[in-house]
Amino acid sequence: MEDAEDLKAAPGRSNAELACLLPHPAADANKYTRGHLSLVVGSAAYPGAACLAAAAGERAGAGYTEVFCAGKSMITVRGWRPSLVVRDWRAWKPAKAPAPRPGHPTACVIGCGFDAAETSLTSLLMETVRGWKAPLLIDGGALGLIANATGLRLARERAAAGRATLLTPHGGEAARLAQGAREALGEAEDAAARGTRSPLAEAAGALSPASRATLVEADSAPAALACALAEAYGAVVALKGPVTFIASPDGTAEVMDRGTSALAKAGTGDVLAGIVGALLAQGLSPRDAAALGCALHAEAGRAAAAALTDICVAAEDLITHLPDAIRAIES
Ligand SMILES: NC(=O)C1=CN([C@@H]2O[C@H](COP(=O)(O)OP(=O)(O)OC[C@H]3O[C@@H](n4cnc5c(N)ncnc54)[C@H](O)[C@@H]3O)[C@@H](O)[C@H]2O)[C@@H](O)CC1
Ligand SMILES: Nc1ncnc2c1ncn2[C@@H]1O[C@H](COP(=O)(O)OP(=O)(O)O)[C@@H](O)[C@H]1O
């Protein structure tokens, strides 16, 4: 990896490059071949996040959209959109799900509407990080729950097993992930001082000096922070903000700067997670799913602002205007 000062994210992709990735259904498609999206979302405190992420995922092309949520959230999610398949999250068994097979892509989104203070959700998350074989997108409150030495170790074990992970933090969540990586570095140093061998110590030892420096600093630039988190957690990281940086564990990064401040409203991140998760569930790589999903989200924000003004846009409007975003990218 380059020195932190030298880090340059590649410019955003062109419409032509993105249009090639759009997952139009094949003539012989059925709901299973189009992609199965499982969302583990929506605690009792935040049923709305489940509604937004799931509806966005369905609209972004997933053939079968299944929501696992708190029992108290089920009625809200069912009432919001009858086409969603809604289950209690006690029925979520990530390790028992079949491995993805050719022609039947699948992915999971976890964390929209999790409360990071709700530690009872930690086992649900860690079981998923450990057991879910297909691509996994971690968002919202789940990012706070994975931001520790155990979470980092499990994320790295997924990467070592060839299982894809995508993290979608906002600035506050990215700061927590960096704190978790610092905790892991500290534990690794303690283990090294004791002469104990541990996977965490080896992982921390292998971290590039640039990433180490970025994680230790309090105010790292977002591009460098996205790259350092990607390397530390072994995941693609889309660090959201007025400009979004998409970084991969190999040290490459790209910018997505199509957004609008009309997007600065509660729930727009849940919509993004649903869109990107649906693209993963339709077989795109994490890097391509993040690049296309973030661009579609931003274009939907622009289309919604054109129709409604940049004052009036709310998260639901992005779902309504997703077709305009697809047309903008195809034009
Ligand atoms: N309708 C709903 O049900 C909604 C549920 N949501 C869910 O609420 C949970 C908590 O998410 P929150 O983001 O509100 O709370 P967080 O606990 O993640 O964020 C709280 C703190 O993080 C920092 N922060 C937040 N956004 C930031 C940003 N964009 N840039 C820099 N720092 C930032 C601020 O210091 C803020 O006080 C998540 O699981 C999320 O999915 C939210 O997405 C809002 C909508
Ligand atoms: N000023 C801005 N300009 C462009 N995009 C923005 C701006 N503010 C927020 N966004 C986008 O809106 C989304 C907000 O996500 P997030 O903070 O996770 O919201 P929430 O947690 O409420 O769902 C991100 O995709 C982010 O890039």
TrEMBL record:
Binding site for AMP: K240, G241, P242, V243, T244, G269
Gene3D superfamilies named among the record's database cross-references: 3.40.1190.20
Domain YjeF C-terminal: 14-329
CDD domains according to UniProt: YXKO-related (cd01171)
InterPro entries per UniProt: Carbohydrate_kinase_pred_CS (IPR017953), CARKD (IPR000631), Ribokinase-like (IPR029056)
Enzymatic reactions: (6S)-NADHX + ADP = AMP + phosphate + NADH + H(+); (6S)-NADPHX + ADP = AMP + phosphate + NADPH + H(+)
EC number(s) reported in the record: 4.2.1.136
Principal EC category: lyase
Protein residues bound to (6S)-NADPHX: A49, G113, H170, D270
GO biological processes: metabolite repair; nicotinamide nucleotide metabolic process
A GO molecular function held by the record: ATP binding
Signal peptide region: none
Obligatory cofactor(s): Mg(2+)
Keywords: ATP-binding, Lyase, NAD, NADP, Nucleotide-binding
Quaternary structure (record): Homotetramer.
The protein's role, per its UniProt record: Catalyzes the dehydration of the S-form of NAD(P)HX at the expense of ADP, which is converted to AMP. Together with NAD(P)HX epimerase, which catalyzes the epimerization of the S- and R-forms, the enzyme allows the repair of both epimers of NAD(P)HX, a damaged form of NAD(P)H that is a result of enzymatic or heat-dependent hydration.
PANTHER family xrefs: ATP-DEPENDENT (S)-NAD(P)H-HYDRATE DEHYDRATASE, ATP-DEPENDENT (S)-NAD(P)H-HYDRATE DEHYDRATASE FAMILY MEMBER
Family per similarity comment: Belongs to the NnrD/CARKD family.
Protein name, UniProt field: ADP-dependent (S)-NAD(P)H-hydrate dehydratase
